[in-house]
Design brief:
3 helices; 161 residues; globular; alpha+beta; Nucleoside Triphosphate Pyrophosphohydrolase; two-stranded antiparallel sheet
């Protein structure tokens, strides 16, 4: 079975490698022609969508809200509602923890106005000491965006814009 890393490079686990099931939730925040992404210490050259693992005591939407705060430093507005939900199953090699994940990912699409509390200009330092920023929707697929997120965005954005 072939897994890919955040850059789209292929890997095959050996008998002694850790392979596990994992679930995650992510926010796709659009503001006009911009999309919110963040950088983290374990992948400073690969922007990703705000999101991450779902904990045992939460559902996908609660996890997306919690991860949004953790990865942007911005409280998720309670009145912001998802316009669409997309689910994909991917095979991911998580190089930062040297594990192979059978990863069920839920993406929530949000349309944000510029006067919304989560919109900002430039870069905003996130809790990990790296940055969140609004990138161009048109060029995001050609960036070093996390490979799994590129796959999801291709479907989500092709059907939304």
């Amino acid at each position: 079975m072939t897994y890919f890393d955040r850059n789209g490079e292929c890997y095959t686990p050996s008998k002694n490698d850790t392979v596990r099931a994992r679930s995650g939730a992510f926010c796709v925040c659009l503001c006009g022609d911009k999309i919110l992404v963040n950088l983290e210490p374990h992948a400073p050259d690969n922007p990703s969508l705000p999101g991450g693992g779902i904990e045992e005591d939460e559902n996908a939407f609660q996890a997306a809200q919690r991860e949004f705060l953790e990865e942007t430093g911005i409280s998720f507005p309670q009145d912001l509602t998802s316009k669409k939900t997309f689910i994909q199953d991917i095979k991911l090699y998580a190089d930062d923890v040297d594990e192979y994940w059978n990863y069920n990912q839920t993406y929530f699409l949000f349309h944000v106005e510029r006067n919304n509390s989560i919109y900002f200009e430039g870069q905003k330092k996130n809790p990990s000491g790296y940055y969140a920023f609004w990138d161009d929707v048109e060029t995001i697929q050609m960036s070093t965006l996390h490979y799994g997120h590129k796959k999801a965005l291709k479907i989500i954005l092709d059907n939304d814009i």
